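agent> Task received from the user: take the single chain below, predict its 3D structure, and emit C-alpha cells. No templates, no multimer pairing.
agent> Plan: (1) validate residues, (2) run structure prediction, (3) serialize to C-alpha cells, (4) report one or two observations.
agent> Step 1 OK, no nonstandard residues flagged.
tool_call: predict_structure(input=
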Amino acid sequence: VIKDLKNCLDGLTPSYHKTHRLQHKDGSYHWLQSQGTVQRDNKGQPYRFLIRFTDITEHKRLEQTLETSKHYEPLLAALPEALLLIDNQGQLIDANLTALQFYGYPRQELLQLKLTNLATNDLKLTDSRTPQVTSHKKKDGTLVSVEVMVTTFPWQPQKLIILTVRDVSPLRESTTTLAESEARYRLLFEA
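)
tool_result: status=success, residues=191
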C-alpha cells in the first residue's frame, strides 16, 4: 500500500487504486476499496492527496457466495428432484435444471414467478421431515401430483426456503391401477 501511495505521489502512476481488508474496531473484518488522486501545484509538486474509501464487504461476500455456488452446480444439476429456492415473500429466486425441465419454463421466465403460480393449494412453508403431497401446475397448464419437502434457512437479513419437489404421478397412477385390479380380482372370486 505504501509503495503504491509513494508511486502516485512521485507521479509514476496517475492515480491510486487498492482493495484491502481491515479489521473493524468490533473485531469483524471489512473489505475496503480505496481510490486516490494527487493534486499538484503549478510546479508539479503535490499539495493535496485525495482518497476515497468505499466499504465493499457485501460485494465481496456475494462474490464468495457465487464462487462457492459454482462448485455445487454440477451436483444440483444431477439431482433427480426439482429444487426451488424461494424468498420469504414467495418469489422464486433460483431453480435447478430438473425444475426447469419438470415445469417446462426457461430459467428467466420461471424466476419471475411466485410459488403461488405453481402450487395449487397452500403449502406449509416450515421445516418438515414429512413430505407434503399436493399438486403443481406446469407451464402448459397440466396439473401434476407432487411430493414436496420444505427446508428453511437464514440468509443474510431474511429466511430462504428450499423446496424439493418430486413427481409422484406415476406412483399414484400405479396405486390406482393396482386398486382397480384388486377390485376386479375380488369380483371374480366373490361371484
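agent> Step 4: summary for the user.
Strands lie at 15-23, 29-40, 46-55, 82-86, 92-95, 132-137, 143-155, 158-167.
agent> Done.
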